[in-house]
Design goal:
single chain, 3-stranded antiparallel beta sheet, globular
Length: 88
């Protein structure tokens, strides 16, 4: 069974760039579902966390793909991700 954020993990895995900016709407299109209201209200929702300890499946998804959240703009409803170990 596919978890809600698995499509985001797969999308990020398939990118060749080292940095990507996605709108919240784009992420919703990728996962085929609405983000929870807390994703639009709290920057902490987008935090990188230890994938072995967190219960936040969204963070596990992008970290399993080899990416980290680099910044979130709640007003613009955009989040940027960088590939782990990349030099910008």
């Amino acid at each position: 069974m596919m978890a809600k954020y698995d499509p985001l993990r797969d999308y990020l895995r398939d990118r060749s760039a080292n940095r990507i900016v996605l709108s919240f709407d784009q992420i919703e299109d990728i996962i085929g579902a609405a983000l929870p209201p807390s994703a639009r209200k709290y920057g902490e929702w987008w935090a990188n966390e230890d994938p072995q300890r967190t219960m936040h499946v969204q963070a596990v998804a992008w970290q399993e793909a080899g990416w980290e959240m680099a910044g979130v703009d709640l007003l613009a409803e955009q989040v940027s991700f960088v590939r782990v170990g990349s030099v910008e």
